[in-house]
Amino acid sequence: MSQSKLRWGVLGCAGIAKRAVIPGIQQSQTGEVAAIASRGEEKAKETAASLNIPKAYGSYEELLADEQIDAVYVPLPNHLHKEWTIRAAEAGKHVLVEKPAALNSQEAEEMVAACAKAGVKLAEAFMYRHHPRYAMIRDVIASGEIGAIRGIHGAFTFNNAKDANNVRYKRYMGGGSLYDVGVYPISAARLILGQEPQAATVHAFFSSEHDQVDMMASGLLEFADGVALTFDCGMWAAGRNVLEIIGTDGRIEVPCAYVSRQNADDHFFVTVRGERREVAVPYVNHYALQADDIGRSVLEGSPQRFGTDDIVRGMKVIDACMQSAQERVRVVL
């Protein structure tokens, strides 16, 4: 492309878009937010005005028809990700779709195929993976300082259970804690170990007060060489956002593992033979870095850090976790 910036459109006025992703794109080196759409023009105009976005549309179709838009961010409820990713691809737009990319791996495969056919980029919005601390964590592991990895534990929980109308509590929309926050520790373990799990066992609390979605889930993912991820995730529990990597000689603790506060909370700790040290990380906006990854891929031809095959593999793991939780069985991948 001859232009210097990727022109983004946003399909919907979701909280994550307004609070984090739009400001991230606006702070990126490669992108600008040129338009936003909602199902109502008034809401789109209000959001556009509050975030200094030049154009507002009263329908997603209108935004996709805008030839001045190069890429779209899709923060819609999970059950709409496939439809609007494919429609965006068919309109010639590159796509950043909110996690989880789809409701299952079959949908993910269809989305990947549609984007490949249209010749557009597709990325899943796991912003945390673009933060430099994860490269730093992998460097500590590769150095051998904590020895061989013996296990990983991750947790991501919050309590929003009183918000009965929240889309997270609608089963047909792809609600539930596994989809919403469980995907983070699962993704992090796959990233850190550089491999896929061999089996999944998940026990979940399905709430009759919340359309029978899983409001809390605890799981075990089995990796090669006896290494496992144990994790829990929840939307009706006290807040936690942590990751711990256990080695033969030491451990790594990440107290604020999946979000970035751009302050000292982002640092992590390494303990070896009883001595604990803090590792300072750069204060960066990982939403901006996420936008720059796809931006440089489009504008400069750089390879994306995470390919579309990763999207499908990740959804296969979530498929196995959902099946295990629903059927109360161990699922081999």
Automatic annotation (TrEMBL):
Keyword entries, A-Z: Oxidoreductase
Similarity remark: Belongs to the Gfo/Idh/MocA family.
Top EC category: oxidoreductase
Species whose genome carries this gene: Paenibacillus konkukensis
Domain (Gfo/Idh/MocA-like oxidoreductase N-terminal) ranges: 6-124
Originating gene: afr_2
Enzyme nomenclature, EC number: 1.1.1.292
Alphabetized GO MF terms: 1,5-anhydro-D-fructose reductase (1,5-anhydro-D-mannitol-forming) activity
Annotated InterPro entries: Gfo/Idh/MocA-like_OxRdtase_N (IPR000683), Gfo/Idh/MocA_domain (IPR050984), GFO_IDH_MocA-like_dom (IPR055170), NAD(P)-bd_dom_sf (IPR036291)
Residues of the GFO/IDH/MocA-like oxidoreductase domain: 134-253
Protein name listed in UniProt: 1,5-anhydro-D-fructose reductase
Pfam families: GFO_IDH_MocA (PF01408), GFO_IDH_MocA_C3 (PF22725)
Signal peptide positions (record): none
